[in-house]
Structures are given as structure tokens and as C-alpha cells.
Amino acid sequence: MKSKKLPEQDVLHFLNNVYTQSEAERVCSNLKDNPDYQNILSKSTDEIWNESEDYIQTPISQKEQYREEASILLRKINKTPFTIHPYIRRAISIAASIIIILTFGIVLYHYNHATQKRDILYSEASTSFGNIKKIELPDGTIVTLNACSHLRFPKQFEGSERNVKLEGEAFFQVARNEKKPFIITTGQFNVKVLGTEFNVKAYSADLTQTVNVKRGKVQVEMPEATIRLIKDEQLELNSLNASFNKRNENQDVATWRVGCLSFNKTPIKDVANELERRYNCRIVFERGENFDNMITGEHSNKSLESVLGSIEYTSGIHFRIEENGREIMLYK
Fold first, then answer.
1. Same domain, yes or no: 200 and 274
2. CA of 279: how far to CAs of 147, 269, 292, in Å?
């Protein structure tokens, strides 16, 4: 049998100690079985939580005053303006105590959570065009940032996880901690590990993003799937067609750390982005022409013109260096 809707006015009167006996009876009979009261209590707890933001900032003397006011409120609730059956009185007292305990529990939870978030201090590391930087995180993890990359991490890893945020490309040598996973957040996916070595390429401007594992295993978490990778495996995500591909890669991981460029069926526009970041130049494509070429090849410590010459030879895409010397036009 469906219970009757509990009038909002009954609960509000009950909380403010202006209830009648019939209102108190309705509250007690509906408090346990009728879920409608939760919306009313939710409004009250939201108001208390908003007010608690002021409480967080108040001095100790005011906090003591609030505790005294809360004590007075408890004593006030236990008073009844009408003659009520002892059973009803006891039920009302228990219900009021439960409401107050739950309410203050919610406030304390949010207060502690907000305090923890406020106390976390972050550091940031960035690189510019053609720059590579190696940094050590508080847990001993070593991160090598490729050009035009940004890493944000806490000055101390607190809690049950080690969370960092990456924009760009980085090679991670994660200090092992089985009780505290290391999680990298990017714009498209998260990478979760316990301790291993791997490369993450996640430039927001690129059509493809990759994760390559050098040692151990990693877990890549995407909205549509979770993929696990082991040594010598790669996951490639293509934002152009919203697809992903897992494959074996029998080649060195993150050769960019020693000045090499490596492309494996890479879209020409991603190649252009890579060259811009490496050589601090600007590459533009001839208007009206279709550039859907996929580029494969390795280039070790070569000049920009040498790399462009190799691309021209294998793909038929020509290049022209403009008069300012910093802009390259690609055309067919």
C-alpha cells in the first residue's frame, strides 16, 4: 500500500518546535516509510551547508557560541507545548536527534572535504618549443616532458591516489606503490598504473593520441572502454573518427628524448604539429588541396629541411620556405 504524502508544513513545524500532537504523529509515522521527506530534509541540509561556509571561517569564540546555541536548540526540541503520549514523545526525540546527527554529519563531511581540497598545494612544470625537461615528483617518480607540454601535480601526494594532469607528451618512470595508484589525467583519457615506464602523447591539437608501454603494464580508461597494455604495446586514439586501436610496437619508446623523430602511419597534420613544436616554426597547407597522407619514418637529429626533404620523397608533398624563414608552405 502506498503511503500518503507527508505535508511539508508538518516537517517544518516539527523542526521549529511549533507542532501540534496530530502533526507530530504524522511525522513519526511517515519519517521511516515515506521517502518524500528526504526532499524536505535535503533543502534544510543545503541551507545548513551554505551557512556552514561562514562557520568554517569563524574564530574559535564564535564556534563556541554556535555550540551553545546548538545545545539550546536540542533542549528546546525536547520540550513539548502539548500533552503527548510518552511513546510519541520518545519517538519525536529520537527522530529529532537523528535529523540533527545526520545534518551535522553532512556539514562535517563537506567541511573536512573542503579543508582537504583547500590544503592541497600544486606545482607546475612546462616546456616551450624545442625544449625537453626532466623533473622528479614528490613520490620519486621521474617525468620527462617533451616540447610544448604542461604537467600539474601536488607538492605532496595525499590520500589513496597519486593524481597528475598532463597536456602534451611525457615519459613516466613511476615509483611503485601498490597501495596508491598513479593516475594521469588528459583531455581524452586517464592512465592508471602502480609503477612502470611508459609514454603518453596527448596534445589537444593533434588528431591522434597514444600510450606506449616500455615496461610493466598500464590501464587506459576512456568514456567508452578500458584498455590494458603490457610491454611493447601501444594504444592509439583517433579523434577524427572517434576510434582506438591497440597494437604491438617493436621499437624504442619515446625516442624523442634523444632527439629522434618517429612516425608510424601518422597523419600529415600531426607530423606538421610535431615539427612546429620541435623546430619552433609555422607550417601551413596550401588551400584547396586535400592532405590525408599518412607518414611513416624515423629521423635522427636531422635539420628541419632534411626532415621535410624525406617527407617530400616518400609522400610527394612538397615544401617551400617563405621569405621570413620561419614559415613553411606544404603543397602538392
1. no
2. 10, 15, 23
Show the cell assigned to 60: 574559535
Q: Are strands 318-321 and 327-331 parallel, antiparallel or unpaired?
A: antiparallel
Rounded CA separation 309/320 (Å): 11
From 295, 298, 289, 223, select the one nearest 260 (Cα to Cα): 298
Whole-model pTM? 0.65
Q: Judge whether 269 and 291 are in contact, CB under 8 Å.
A: yes
331, three cell numbers: 603543397
DSSP structure class, residue 70: H
79 against 301, higher pLDDT:
301
Pairing of strands 162-173, 182-185: parallel
Residues 92 and 175 in one domain: no
In total, how many domains does the chain have?
3
Q: Assign 3-state DSSP to the chain and report helix, strand, coil percentages, each to 5.
A: 35, 30, 35
Instruction: Output the nine-digit C-alpha cell for 47.
Output: 541551507
Q: In this structure, are 52 and 132 located in the same domain?
A: no
- Residues 106, 136, single domain; the answer is no
Show contacts of 32-35: CB within 8 Å, 24+ apart.
33/3, 34/3, 34/4, 34/5, 34/6
β-bridge mates for residue 209, sequence order: 237
| More confident position, 188 or 4 | 188
C-alpha Rg value of the chain to the nearest Å: 31
pLDDT digits (tens, 9 = 90+) for 38-65: 555 445 444 544 444 444 444 445 555 5
Q: Strand locations in the chain, DSSP E?
A: 122-126, 133-136, 142-145, 150-154, 162-173, 182-185, 190-193, 197-202, 208-215, 217-221, 226-230, 233-238, 243-248, 260-267, 282-285, 294-300, 318-321, 327-331
For cell 606503490, what's the residue? 177
